[in-house]
Amino acid sequence: MDKALTQTRLGRRGFLKASGAALTIPAAFDATAQAAVPAVPRDVPGNGPNADLLIRMQADVRRALVKKPQERRWVMVIDLRKCIGCHACTIACVAENKLPPGVVYRPVIEEEIGTFPNVTRRFVPRPCMQCDNPPCTPVCPVHATYTNEEGVVVVNYKQCIGCRACLTACPYGARTSDFGHTYAEGTPVADGLIVGQKKADAYERAANYEYGEPWDRVKEGSPMGNARKCHFCLHRVRQGMLPQCVSSCIGRATFFGDANDPNSVVAEMVARPNVMRLKEELGTKPRVYYMV
């Protein structure tokens, strides 16, 4: 029995050692300066075609980071056949970006299909579509929202004036506005307790790190009062990690990577015949694909 236990432990250590080779993350990445990010060849242990999808996608991201920003095409694929409506991606996104009440970057829409008694439900996660032809950017009077060199639609919090024209222009309802609310509003002060209103409110107003910069939630300061949206977790991607919604999906229904890399997971998926995009007739050319 001791011999079998020893073999099991050695097997686990070997797996962790092999996985660690593919999971090593560079300390920092500056898209502008093009800091060196080691490429991950396909023969690295754990990075073959039969490897875990998360490890494969992370390797895809690291390979893409070696290229110039304009040469990569970040794409997200969501398999609606696997999504169970657990909302783990929604909550993970809220935690990652410290989103306040009323601000959600990745809601999951529930859809009822069929006629009674043959009725079923479908769950549709809806992040920002990151359109190649976004209707939200030309309506901004101060050019605070734009498509960056990687093709991701972003918001310059310092420049946004909170007119919300982009919220109206987006046909997907993928933009929200930060009205400065906190979850601690209206709760008891509870002096003497471990966590009362003051301590909880202080935590909620702590800085978040969207776009790689700290943003304190204080009155009259961005992003409060301004437009906010999904940005494919660029602050994570530039560190060689996957967007938080991808990592947290318990059903492995969300995929991310560089569609310009023919060896990437997403390149394989967008080429399948059962792939569609929302409201393609509008000519927005979304970068989010759905498998049905």
Keywords:
four-stranded mixed beta sheet, alpha+beta, Alpha-Beta Plaits, disordered N terminus, two-stranded antiparallel sheet, 292 residues
Structure description:
- There is one protein chain.
- This protein is α+β, with helices and mostly antiparallel strands and 292 residues long.
- It has a single domain (2-152, 230-291), classed as Alpha-Beta Plaits, CATH 3.30.70.
- It has helices at residues 2-23, 53-66, 88-97, 165-169, 197-204, 234-237, 244-248, 265-270, and strands spanning 74-79, 108-115, 118-125, 145-147, 153-155, 175-177, 227-229, 254-258, 275-276, 288-291.
- A four-stranded mixed beta sheet has the order 8-1-10-9. The protein has a two-stranded antiparallel sheet with strand order 2-3. A two-stranded antiparallel ribbon has the order 4-5.
- Strand 4 (145-147) and strand 5 (153-155) form a beta hairpin.
- The longest helix is centred in the first third of the chain and has 22 residues, at 2-23.
- It is globular and about 60 Å long.
